[in-house]
Amino acid sequence: MTIAGWALILSFVGVLLALTKPVGLWLFALYEGRRTPLHHVLGPVENGFYRLAGIDPAAQQGWRRYAVHMLLFNTALLALTYVVLRLQGVLPGNPQGLAGLSPDLAFNTAVSFTTNTNWQSYGGEGTMSNLSQMLGLTIQNFLSAATGIALAFALFRGFARREAAAVGNFWADVTRITLYLLLPLCVVLTLFYIAGGVPQTLGGVVDVTTLEGARKTILLGPVASQEAIKMLGTNGGGFFNANSAHPFENPTALTNFIQMLSIFVIGFGLTWTFGRAVGNTRQGWAILAAMVILFLAGVSVAYAQEAAGNPVLHQLGVAGGNMEGKEARFGIAASALFSVITTAASCGAVNAMHDSFTALGGMIPMLNIQLGEVVIGGVGAGIYGFLLFAILAVFVAGLMVGRTPEYVGKKIEAREVKLAVLAIAVLPLIILGFTALSSMLAPGLAGPLNKGPHGFSEILYAFSSAVGNNGSAFAGLTANTPYYNALLGIAMWLGRFFVIVPMLAIAGSLAAKKHVPESAGSFPTTGGLWVGMLIGIILILGGLTFLPSLALGPIADHLAMIRGQLF
Amino acid sequence: MSKTNIGQELSSAVRPAIVMTILFAALLGIVYPLAMTGIGQALFPAQANGSLVRDAAGRVIGSTVVGQAFTSERYFQTRPSAAGEGYDGLASSGSNLGPASRVLAERVAADVAKRRSEGVRGAVPADLVTASGSGLDPDLSPEAARAQAPRVATARRLSVGQVRALIDAHVEAPLLGAPHVNVLALNRALDGLSPEVFGR
Q: What are the pLDDT digits (tens) for A472-526?
């Protein structure tokens, strides 16, 4: 580890803390439905959309209607992407002349991008035409992110409203978030990326004769416009197979820094928005404190492990840290940091290959996903996932002191706790169930590239990533088979909507409740004790659930690595 | 909310779901990327088209951004690559080999032996014998370039000092990343230094 490395990590967190309140304020304006300066330009677009679709943005929806409209919209988007990918061969915008995708791959990819997972069963280049990237994938990157933030708004309203029947209007939330937050930021980011060296053209391939006289092909496309929303919306699906490790997606240390900031900036802001929505910004800062502590703990372990390097290679006379799968321009600190950010959030973009990390260095990204991606988390999904843990934490605290638990002015009762447990328990069940299945069945066992415990890690990572809607991978796994495409597709859909629906039910149930003023008997949810409770609950639940499987994968891998035992 | 059944809820959502999908598809899937392409091409034409590098005759010889393979002893050689057969612009990829992989250990051992035969002593710089994440890494660490200086100097009948100075002049040390040298830029400078030895 170096001083420069730690300076990078701490300045990253510092910049985000400085952005938290301004971004949170902007999000709060959208949450409230207030006018922003951008309404002068984009207001007519917003109103035009409502008129054509027959939407009354002021009509309030109860949680069931909000859920039904959200689900149907996502299903329509799924269908659009599936059709575009299947028909790619006959549609325009296809300079490489690529064929349409197979049904299982098109299904997997459509689910993947609708659920904000962006798991890539395909290699970006040589599979997707320019039109597919734009019309099939970029649009999902925007709308899955907007859906996530809208759902977080609905849950915030559940806590904030008193004896109310409704949690907002889904269409108004999604449209405003897209038009007044994601789109303008992406315009700025796209131009920044192009200036830094990311291509943005409708052209396809360029033939090159290298300095040594070899004939090579360079692939171009509308990369920058996809890259901007890929990071900002915590999507993570790359234009190229190598994702943000590819020099065209992420050419410099500066673009890398901006990409890392983009992944977290909305998540940081939403914690502040939550605090403001429930009338006490310290509630938001307490959540952010717990998240940042967990984040820095993960970074410390991953960075230390990667900087220490691989003893197997040291034996062969290789110096220093682990550079397998990492780019020279980023080095070890920026690669380890990126890996923890992308898995703490549900982004899943990678600037280095997690599969080639040291055993414990690679375990941190996996563990981040398994903890539910609540450390900052995906846009919207992170904070609503975290609030489910907060409900459990006040429940546990209530049991310890023998009082009815309350959180930000609402009584937490049996219904909320049951729903929170349902949402939280479904994820490990699917991850571990599908991993176990794939470790026994022939088509599952055909997947891993690596032998020994690392092969098991590849399977475990894949299902953690799919269910957690992350999208990063131990990419040695050959996942583009009907078996994995189908199973991972199902895992992604369940992982997204089996959290969302119980969460919305909690929002509806909370909105209907009376406000309980804070009293001397209330458990304070702003101080250090509360932050410790939150961290404890997340680590104990995640740890107890996944420790046995991690022992079979990365931990066994680590013991082999330090003994020099090869597979 | 009054007691509405799920069927009514669904039918009320059909029109907005379909119309909004079409409208957003037009805005985000067509207008946004095309507008960005137009603006990007106007403001930053070189970068938007891949930062291509041309030789004196105007032929494209590469990109400053994306790496290409160098295997000749007269050039600074690039890192091992897992992209296709090596530096394949249509198949970017890392090796994805785990830390205790026998395949990885054997590959690295072979590369270390090769570097030893070229006179590299002491610990071998890690990036010189490991595959990058993309397989298209355009850079080397300064250490990995310096380790090759004696070989390049011999092949081009230059002094090691001259070659070292050339490396130092090409080191970029970004505040937010790692110090590195762009191999294509370095090798073009090398050709500028001793074109008579490596005539084309």
A: 999 999 999 999 999 999 999 999 999 999 999 999 999 999 999 988 888 899 9
The three-class DSSP label of residue B172 is strand
Q: Which of A211, A239, A354 to mutate to test the interface with B (most CBs of B within 10 A)?
A: A211
Q: With respect to residue B17, please indicate whether it lies within any of the assigned structural domains.
A: yes
Asked if this assembly's ipTM is beyond 0.85, the reply is yes
Q: What is the pLDDT along chain B (200 residues), one digit of tens a residue?
A: 444 577 888 888 999 999 999 999 999 999 999 999 999 999 999 999 999 999 989 999 999 999 999 999 999 999 999 999 999 999 999 999 999 999 999 999 999 999 999 999 999 999 999 999 999 999 999 999 999 999 999 999 999 999 999 999 999 999 999 999 999 999 999 999 876 444 44
Same domain, B126 and B189: yes
Residue-range definition of the domain harbouring residue B95: 50-193
Q: Is residue B174 part of a domain?
A: yes
Comparing CB atoms, the residue among B23, B47, B141 nearest residue A328 is: B141
In a domain, B1, yes or no: no
B59 contacts in A (CB within 8 Å)?
209
Q: Do the Cβ atoms of A134 and B13 come within 8 Å?
A: no
Give the helix ranges, DSSP H, for A87-210.
103-114, 130-131, 139-160, 170-177, 183-196
Partner residue opposite B133 with nearest CB, options A45, A123, A326: A326
The packing angle between helices A381-401 and A281-308, to 10°, is: 110
Q: In chain A, what residues touch B17 (CB-CB under 8 Å)?
A: 69, 72-73, 75-76
Adjacent-strand bridge partners of A209: A215
Q: CA A183 from chain center: how many Å?
A: 18
Would you state the structure tokens that stand for residue A24, as one six-digit string? 């949170």
Residues B132 and B169 in one domain: yes
> Which tokens is A334 given?
């920026």
Is the Cβ–Cβ distance between A150 and A174 less than 8 Å? yes
CA of B140 vs chain A CAs: smallest distance (Å): 6
The size of the A-B interface in CB pairs under 8 A is 401
Please name the residue of chain B whose CA is at the shortest distance from the CA of residue A319: B123
